[in-house]
Amino acid sequence: AVATVDLNRAARCGFPEVIFGPGKTPEAINEIAGRLLAHDQNVLATRIDPANATMILEKFPAARYNKIARTLRIDASSRNSEVGNVAVITAGTSDLPVAEEARETLDWMGVRATMVHDVGVAGPHRLPERLAEFAETDAIVVVAGMEGALPSVVGGYVRCPVFAVPTSVGYGANLGGLSALLSMLNSCASNVAVVNIDAGFKAGYLAGLVATRRDY
Amino acid sequence: AVATVDLNRAARCGFPEVIFGPGKTPEAINEIAGRLLAHDQNVLATRIDPANATMILEKFPAARYNKIARTLRIDASSRNSEVGNVAVITAGTSDLPVAEEARETLDWMGVRATMVHDVGVAGPHRLPERLAEFAETDAIVVVAGMEGALPSVVGGYVRCPVFAVPTSVGYGANLGGLSALLSMLNSCASNVAVVNIDAGFKAGYLAGLVATRRDY
Amino acid sequence: AVATVDLNRAARCGFPEVIFGPGKTPEAINEIAGRLLAHDQNVLATRIDPANATMILEKFPAARYNKIARTLRIDASSRNSEVGNVAVITAGTSDLPVAEEARETLDWMGVRATMVHDVGVAGPHRLPERLAEFAETDAIVVVAGMEGALPSVVGGYVRCPVFAVPTSVGYGANLGGLSALLSMLNSCASNVAVVNIDAGFKAGYLAGLVATRRDY
Amino acid sequence: AVATVDLNRAARCGFPEVIFGPGKTPEAINEIAGRLLAHDQNVLATRIDPANATMILEKFPAARYNKIARTLRIDASSRNSEVGNVAVITAGTSDLPVAEEARETLDWMGVRATMVHDVGVAGPHRLPERLAEFAETDAIVVVAGMEGALPSVVGGYVRCPVFAVPTSVGYGANLGGLSALLSMLNSCASNVAVVNIDAGFKAGYLAGLVATRRDY
Amino acid sequence: AVATVDLNRAARCGFPEVIFGPGKTPEAINEIAGRLLAHDQNVLATRIDPANATMILEKFPAARYNKIARTLRIDASSRNSEVGNVAVITAGTSDLPVAEEARETLDWMGVRATMVHDVGVAGPHRLPERLAEFAETDAIVVVAGMEGALPSVVGGYVRCPVFAVPTSVGYGANLGGLSALLSMLNSCASNVAVVNIDAGFKAGYLAGLVATRRDY
Amino acid sequence: AVATVDLNRAARCGFPEVIFGPGKTPEAINEIAGRLLAHDQNVLATRIDPANATMILEKFPAARYNKIARTLRIDASSRNSEVGNVAVITAGTSDLPVAEEARETLDWMGVRATMVHDVGVAGPHRLPERLAEFAETDAIVVVAGMEGALPSVVGGYVRCPVFAVPTSVGYGANLGGLSALLSMLNSCASNVAVVNIDAGFKAGYLAGLVATRRDY
Amino acid sequence: AVATVDLNRAARCGFPEVIFGPGKTPEAINEIAGRLLAHDQNVLATRIDPANATMILEKFPAARYNKIARTLRIDASSRNSEVGNVAVITAGTSDLPVAEEARETLDWMGVRATMVHDVGVAGPHRLPERLAEFAETDAIVVVAGMEGALPSVVGGYVRCPVFAVPTSVGYGANLGGLSALLSMLNSCASNVAVVNIDAGFKAGYLAGLVATRRDY
Amino acid sequence: AVATVDLNRAARCGFPEVIFGPGKTPEAINEIAGRLLAHDQNVLATRIDPANATMILEKFPAARYNKIARTLRIDASSRNSEVGNVAVITAGTSDLPVAEEARETLDWMGVRATMVHDVGVAGPHRLPERLAEFAETDAIVVVAGMEGALPSVVGGYVRCPVFAVPTSVGYGANLGGLSALLSMLNSCASNVAVVNIDAGFKAGYLAGLVATRRDY
Ligand SMILES: Nc1ncnc2c1ncn2[C@@H]1O[C@H](COP(=O)(O)O)[C@@H](O)[C@H]1O
Ligand SMILES: Nc1ncnc2c1ncn2[C@@H]1O[C@H](COP(=O)(O)O)[C@@H](O)[C@H]1O
Ligand SMILES: Nc1ncnc2c1ncn2[C@@H]1O[C@H](COP(=O)(O)O)[C@@H](O)[C@H]1O
Ligand SMILES: Nc1ncnc2c1ncn2[C@@H]1O[C@H](COP(=O)(O)O)[C@@H](O)[C@H]1O
Ligand SMILES: [Mg+2]
Ligand SMILES: [Mg+2]
Ligand SMILES: [Mg+2]
Ligand SMILES: [Mg+2]
Ligand SMILES: [Mg+2]
Ligand SMILES: [Mg+2]
Ligand SMILES: [Mg+2]
Ligand SMILES: [Mg+2]
Which of residues 54-83 of B touch C (CB under 8 A)? Predict the structure, then answer.
């Protein structure tokens, strides 16, 4: 077998293994999804392109594909009510797909998400106007490309952890997102942690972990 | 004045402004520390070299300098009892200074820290033997240089957020810590967030934020 | 002539010249392959795309194309029985093509290969469970993308050389495989040697050289 | 002769050649300064270390050395009254030396400079509180290290050009200032132009050019 | 809503928000454009590909698409007469698209632009022959790829600010424009400021800001 | 006009301006070629893709397109007999297109070229066997990808300048040719000069300049 | 305790843990060495600077410090006779320290080493003249800086694995050894594996593993 | 022996082996120099620091040390009269040491050198004023740091090969000379070849090879 599915992950880490789409055939994804469902684990697959999504939907008609986030979900059982409170904030409209991946992840974890879009630093009055929407959150995901300045500013206003996601939005010296990544790593705000470029899933997952901890 | 001390930081973000030592004269540090203390805020200064520490200790004899962590602390008021539970894990003995900076930060936040040292992947049996020491923590700080593999492995065993700190330990293709940094950003474990190279302070602060959230 | 085929390679180095596909027309590959076969040398060609493979198969109907590995083989003579024992281990399912290239190379060298798939560090219990499958090998090939942590862990369990192959699997800060490459170069395990990104052929060849040495 | 002093620079470009200190002996600097003074041009030399400054002061007792900015000035003639209005803003106290180099350059050009220090984004309320100090300027110099976010925010509040100077302040993934440099180049504010890392001279000069244009 | 249009930008910064095309659907662009027009602000959108342009033109038949510059403009009101004087200079013919983006931006700002094409340093007599065309300008935009040497030479001839735009023209060690970018940042001419690779819009905007300042 | 053709180049530099194809429309190329021919200068255009070549051939039926080198030539006058003697040596068959660009350039300059193909260092006996073919040359062009080792070895055998051309042949850590480029720049052979990645034109031109000097 | 010595390493991997010197106090090294000796394991410590060596020699007078290799050895028991046969080859005299580290490692493993010095490619006749010295070896270590070409050439002559060590010898574009590292990773010889820059220990260890395998 | 001196180099390549100083003890340098002199070959050693120079001068009192170039020369026999004609041009005064290394190399080869200093592009009228000094040379060495623009401009005026030497002069984004190196590699002048950063020796040697060819 080319896959050794980690069926024990949910028990060990709190949530099941998530399927990373790139480099896997739809058959392989179907097989892994089938095994997870057979063990009563809700499926989340990321970075699924539309062609593969179609083939997976044929096998699992109950699957839901989010074509902006490029995520695919299949529930093994009816879902729990939502807990916690996470805000997902974008710097610009072009950061939307990455923010959607974070939102889908939070939803799969059963965590409430509030979206605040397009409040980047070039219009610096926009963020403070919307402070109320994210002042009481357990954790915040901030998604930004280009200079990646927004997480530092958000960090300066709040008392919860900020999970910063650099995006590849931009051109030239953005170096495919490296510029935003470096910005966020060098943030002068103490409460900013960083994940990989375009890794909406990772930031959503980490924020979700923080938001669900109070339940233990 | 060359400094605009952010005295409102504690109210806004939960903890006071922390002094970044490099590029500041001891006089400047003394002035900022004095202002924080005058507002009843506990002082933490990082990356203080021994010569500057000596000069600051002259002004503030109650200050405590940790020469491994290169941190300096001055308390404004008697300290609270400890809350929460964070583990700080190192891959090798050479990662100790960065781990100590994280530990000092947690201590300044009033958070309990458990140290687990030198359990890197070249001796892969060492980590599982000590799982009990960090299984129940609120958050974990993992400090590793060279290939920076340890956070992924720790992440695979636990259900709390892992804050990974790449260190500059190593030589040649370690690129001053960039190799470990990239490793951690690309972690296949879902629960690993990353901070800057050698940024023990940041990881400690983030872990401390998570550990203190249950108190709200 | 645009090629100076190194027909003496087998005598000098133990195995014939291997054809590197990119940048060569199918005619050129056919010509080189023809010359090798005329000198009774088994042909291995790597990185052959499907269109070129079709044209080569027309000329050499006995050729075998592995479409996952993108290798092409044509035997000059009947093959020897297998010697030695090499394990090829992957971190994730997406590393399969590179592992297949290594396996084809070992097969061409007449070396036995054992495949162990999808045992990366995010599910850290998987590798130790399968130790028996690679404990007695002459050499091990470890194939991993993203943070490239697996070779260090494998190295920590075994007494033979580990040939680590970084793959381009991942995104963003994986930098097309550079992240995994750097990880492997900085391995704290003493027995890890490294080859180029996605270079399954190289790692297979080196492991095969070690595995066949006992025959001298 | 090892120098070909560009005595025509003032006529052609508006201001005389400025002496770049590194790699020049104090004798060479003295010679160039002497030639400029002989042609009635005010001398500005940058990046002069203290040892060289001492030797130059011996020859030109009227020279003034700014040991924070590491600039050296010698006036050929009495100075004009000041024109224009430029603000120099720093993100943190450690950016002071670079800001001072800009201030000295503006002073040498006869341009008024207003200094606004330590208003970086981690304390995001500080900048808007001081808007009045730089709302009416001809041009603004913004000096920031680490994530280099401040120029974008300043740019979002003003209608004049912003000349952003990345500094090498920070550590690890700041890459000696490259992180801040990339941030500024990718600024989503339209009015941000960038100069080299730590190039306070350049930003000051450009701002000074804009501030003195209304006099033509 | 996925967009928070900054309708206050014109009041605060002198010119309205400009639409960055990449990653936005034509519907999103139409919506933002509609809001700007409703507030009587002239629309400039950059990096619009032809397919999207067609869809936007269907909604706004008065829009004008420049297919070399890939800009799209829609006027809310009749345009003012032109003020100021900016030169846009290219090193080679291949730099034309970036120069056109700068020209469109200047036109949208109501600033006069003079184009001087293909006067790069390999034919060093060409630039001085055309000095008269840009000697009296308020600011100059210099567009160059490959070694990016032209801005320094232009800077050596003039007394106004030079806004240098590195382009991605070239191959191999041009690193997609990084080579030209680094050249320009290291310019030994004092009056050269730099913007992102291929950022004709930014350089045009900055030059336009300088050219329109005399009107205050 | 978008082009300022440097018609004086031949007089100043010995050979006419060469047309760099990328980013130019076929109309622009036709216009520049026409102007060169009208001034009796032989046309060489590089990096012309097949589609553009077809459109140029329609206008200039006497043009010759080399589809491997992607060069296009149009002679203004009958050609001179050949002078000098340059060798063009490749490491592998995949380096052929770059070598062909060098050969076309030499031919356009009227210089004799000897081609020696596929003698890279993995078969180290091949080069010394063919020493006689390049022992008496005026200059040598060595074209190599991957590790780019060949120029150093050639340099160790000869007394003339070696112009090394790194190619983008390879994968992974070849970084699109940067690996070979760095190798050549660090050559321990004293007589190795380097040009841009894949710049067969440049190396051919430089070798041609050396080979034609004896004629002055 | 700050160290978790891996006393089981010899049993698991064939040889004991090796002490990595940098970042460890002499006290820490003494403690680890003491524990290894107490378990009858021969001590090898690498990258020990002279000052630390002196302090360790005070505690362990039987220790031997190699000041060129900067290694330190302390034997727990009398040593075995030597087995196997490894050649260590340098490109230039400046590569000596790294070669010595490899030789010390092999000696600690009980493996015979043959040294062949200063046979780099700029004098290409030198290597073939000495082929007899390394034709029958089990494995070869090749140490080279600058362009790092030697491993490929050695690889072209032999049938055993070549472990290539890039060194930081050189300047400028050698990028502290990255140039040689990239060369070796891109070697067109099939039998070249690579270790970190200046990692004589690693290459020696790997060659020693191969050389001692025939004993099983 | 740790050195295998290439005594045949002069016969094979026209000039003897040159001693690369870094990483060699004075004893090693003395030994190599002694062997070269014993074979009647003139010694040139580069990158010799003053302390080593003193020790070498004790052994060879006739040696001459150039403390700016850091070269050391010892003649085996009386020197020939000079041939050929090479110009060495610098952009700024700080490039002097590298230019001196080139001049010493040319002198050692018996080639006449003309020095033209400090004619960089910020004062663009300086170079054309001095064209007569280098119009008739066999080859030109151009030495420049910062943006490295000068070689392209020189190349645009002349008909001989230009050997460009990037220097590490500058700061910040000069990346230790990489910026100038990249500029030169991307030169749009056809006649510019490049050597390593600060490699005055290499450029001098190559120019000397061209200048001495007419003697064959
Ligand atoms: N020079 C060296 N280069 C790379 N790894 C080394 C070196 N010396 C020792 N090591 C490895 O470093 C590990 C010890 O790391 P630490 O726990 O930090 O002392 C051991 O497992 C060795 O295999
Ligand atoms: N393949 C090439 N590589 C580098 N430079 C080239 C190439 N082909 C032409 N050139 C140069 O590009 C210049 C023309 O640039 P442009 O004005 O953009 O057409 C000429 O001066 C040539 O010297
Ligand atoms: N400054 C220098 N830059 C580059 N190569 C040099 C330099 N000086 C000497 N060399 C070369 O280095 C080689 C000697 O290397 P090694 O055997 O390490 O002494 C000689 O063949 C010279 O061609
Ligand atoms: N701190 C600085 N940063 C960048 N350029 C400078 C600086 N100081 C002086 N310059 C420029 O450097 C040039 C002098 O270079 P040089 O001929 O090497 O002395 C002058 O034209 C100045 O414009
Ligand atoms: Mg927006
Ligand atoms: Mg240890
Ligand atoms: Mg898996
Ligand atoms: Mg501050
Ligand atoms: Mg042109
Ligand atoms: Mg071949
Ligand atoms: Mg030597
Ligand atoms: Mg000068």
Answer: none
Mutate to test the pocket of ligand 1, among G5, G6, G18 (most ligand atoms within 8 A of CB): G18
Angle between helices B50-59 and B26-38 (to 10 degrees): 40
Contact D3 H118 (CB under 8 A): yes
Gap between the Cα atoms of G157 and G134, Å rounded: 10
pLDDT range class, residue A215, cuts 50, 70, 90: very low
Mutate to test the pocket of ligand 2, among H154, H182, H190, H191 (most ligand atoms within 8 A of CB): H190
Q: Distance between CA E16 and CA B105 in Å, rounded? A: 45
Q: Which residue has the tokens 């809503």?
A: E1
**Residue B216: its pLDDT value, please?**
42
The residue ranges of chain B whose pLDDT is under 70 are 79-80, 214-216
Q: Indicate the residue type of A136.
A: E
Kindly list the protein residues that place their beta carbon closer than 5 angstroms to ligand 7, a single-atom ion.
Answer: C 92, 118
**To 10 degrees, what angle do helices F178-185 and G178-185 make?**
130
Could you give the ipTM of this predicted complex?
Answer: 0.96
Lowest mean pLDDT among A80-84, B151-155, C44-48, G20-24: A80-84
For residues C22 and F145, what is the distance between their CA atoms, to the nearest angstrom? 12
Q: Does A148 touch chain D (CB under 8 A)?
A: yes
Mutation to test the G interface, candidates F126, F129, F152, F197, most G Cβ within 10 Å: F152
Q: From CA A6, how far away is CA A24, in angstroms rounded? A: 16
Fold annotation for D83-213 = Rossmann fold (3.40.50)
F164-210 pLDDT tens trace: 999 999 999 999 999 999 999 999 999 999 999 999 999 999 999 99
Phi, psi of D20 (to 5 degrees): -90, 115
3-class SS of residue H111: strand
pLDDT greater than 50 at residue F215: no
CA distance F115 to chain G (A): 21
- Starting at the edge strand found earlier in the chain, the sheet holding E139-144 runs D111-116, D83-90, D139-144, D162-166, D192-194, E192-194, E162-166, E139-144, E83-90, E111-116
User: In the predicted model, what is the mean pLDDT of residues D35-64?
Assistant: 97
Which residues, judged by CB distance below 6 Å to any ligand atom, belong to the binding site of ligand 4? D 17-20, 46-47, 199, 201-202; E 188, 190; H 92-94, 118, 120, 122
Locus of tokens 């942690």: A193
Atom of ligand 3 nearest to the CA of F190: 23
Q: Does the pLDDT at position A44 exceed 60?
A: yes
Closest CA to C143 of C105, C171, C180: C180
- In contact, E197 and A173? CB cutoff 8 Å: yes
Q: Is G170 in the pocket of ligand 3 (CB under 6 A)?
A: no
Q: Alpha-carbon distance D28 to H33, whole Å?
A: 35
Residue nearest to ligand 2 atom 18, measured at CA: E92
pLDDT tens for each residue of D156-199: 999 999 999 999 999 999 999 999 999 999 999 999 999 999 99
Exposure string for D55-81, b = 16+ CB within 10 A, e = fewer? ebbeebeebebbeebbbbbbeeeeeee
Q: What is the pLDDT of residues H162-216, one digit of tens each?
A: 999 999 999 999 999 999 999 999 999 999 999 999 999 999 999 999 999 854 4
What's the pLDDT score for residue C216?
Answer: 42
Among F residues 19-58, those touching chain G with beta carbons less than 8 Å apart: none
H-helix segments, H3-132: 9-13, 26-38, 50-59, 96-109, 126-129
DSSP state of E7: T
- Which runs of E-coded beta strand occur in E47-122? 64-66, 71-74, 83-90, 111-116
Nearest CA in chain D to B5: D118
